Amino acid sequence: MVLVEPASAEPDALRELARYLSTISLADCDVVILDPSPRLQFERNACTLRWVGRHVAVRPEMNGSVDLLRASAGSAACDKVIVAASDVRYTPLAIEQLCQLLDLHEVVEPQDYLDPLPWWGGVEAARMLVHRGIEPHPDHGATFGFRRSALRTLRTLSSVDCTEDPMRRLVAHGAEVHAAADVFVRRQPPALSEWIADRPRQASDDFPLPIRSAFFFALVPMLLLLATIGGLRLAGGYAGVIAFASFAVALRGRSGAGAFFPLRACFFAPVWMLERSLSVYWALFRKLRGADVDSTRIAVPDRSSGTRVASGE
């Protein structure tokens, strides 16, 4: 079974999404499209999407977010459910691999990758590689799969925490999560404007991980402090160490994934480190102002940019 949500109301984007979903339905999947659009837009979307799957309206919780896990489990007709962003493009082989792993695990998370790769996509790819070089679970991944039967055995999944990263949420409720680091799923890069708008949201998603947030929060002040104390030479040495270390970690993360991540993505690792260290302040500023840093997506913090899609078999 596959659950999806349109990322755009543009007719061309919807038709492209419908063409993709038609290939998924041929892979013996029940396609369910979760759409949080207002009524009139939902009806317009239905003119295109109803031909490739079950087009289901979903409504937000009291906190304004859609509970993707509950909506997916409630709409699915099968036990195995794959959740993905609307920019994810599964192949029948990847779906089959994920379903085989779901026979053994409660939750499975494959590795997404970007193709094509504009410069901002290279920064995103570097983020994926750095995280991959540190731990196996994808960081802000765009897709995952779970068994509905396993979800029913978990402790109560509160609607209050439905904006949390789904993997962290599932782990917190006792789910067994398997990182399928050798299963790769293609994702289309976002538009540059969408990528920029998503920077504070991704940074704010890491606030529940204080050590990570503190590390990025301290990078720029440490650079300025070293420049004040020891001059540009000392600050440059510090920046060089950070840049080389991030490149080395990204290179390590590329091991076993070279066919999907070009070598040039590793060179963007220092750029991502700088971007995240600035985005942490951006996210903190918006949080102090009480601004909503969630992007227009269905339920969870991105794990990817843009709206969310669910899929499964």
Strand order of the largest sheet: 3-2-1-4-7-6-8-5
How many separate helices? 11
Name the quaternary structure: single chain
Number of strands: 8
Distance between the termini: 3 Å
Fraction of residues in H or I helices:
40-55%
Strand content: 5-15%
Q: Largest sheet, described in full? A: 8 strands, mixed
Order of helices and strands: EHEHEHEEHEHEHHEHHHH
Provide mean pLDDT, rounded: 83
Structural class: alpha/beta
- Cα-atom radius of gyration: 20 Å
**Runs with pLDDT <50, length 5+?**
293-313
Shape: globular
Question: What would you say about this model in short?
Answer:
The protein is of the alpha/beta class.
General description of the model:
This protein has 313 residues and is of the alpha/beta class. Helix content is 48%, strand content 14%. Helix 5 (119-134) crosses helix 10. The longest helix has 44 residues, at 210-253. The termini are close together.
